[in-house]
Amino acid sequence: MITKTQLRIKRLFDFSLVIVFLPFLIIPIFLLIVIATIDTRKYGVFTQYRIGQHGKPFKIYKIRTLRDGNHQLGNMDKYASKTGVFLRKSKLNELPQLFNVLIGDMSFVGPRPDLEGFADKLEGEDRIILLVKPGITGPATLKYKNEENILARHKDPEHYNRTIIWVDKVKINKNYVKNYSFYLDLRFIFKSILNK
């Protein structure tokens, strides 16, 4: 099980890494925001409340990729703007989450931050997932990197997500917290970079 000391080291690593990379990425992030603003005709930063460490909600930041409309769970590419499809597939739309890491809402590695109604509803031993900050990447994120395509193949993606994918993610993330090591975090980061 992850310890308080490991959590402190994890936070120190996150802060140090984001301080190193953010100066090089701040201009590309700004340019992507401008492009997204022009492309979607709305402010290029998308914000949404997600469930964080200890079940507390926080505001996540992403590059806006979707046009206006009623967006359903599943294949979002049909709702995406011209550049939005590329940004979503390349994961560049998630670059603003570096600011979430900087201020301490997120980590580089951890469970993906979910909407209200998932992580905040965990019970019993499953709640150990909430001991860690949600991550930009992680074991469940890597396994379900094509989650939207998987959901798009099902008639009821919401039901499939709640009964199959979410249940599996809970198991994966519990295992991550129970068997945490700094080495594993490094491994997930490198694996994420190679999988882009």
UniProtKB/TrEMBL annotation:
Q: Enumerate the InterPro entries for this protein.
A: Bact_transf (IPR003362)
Domain of life from the UniProt record: Bacteria
Q: Output the Pfam families linked to this UniProt entry.
A: Bac_transf
Where is the Bacterial sugar transferase domain positioned along the sequence?
Answer: 10-193
* Keywords annotated in UniProt: Membrane, Transferase, Transmembrane, Transmembrane helix
Signal peptide stretch: none
State any single GO MF term: phosphotransferase activity, for other substituted phosphate groups
Give TM regions.
12-38
State the name under which the record lists this protein.
Sugar transferase
Originating species: Winogradskyella endarachnes
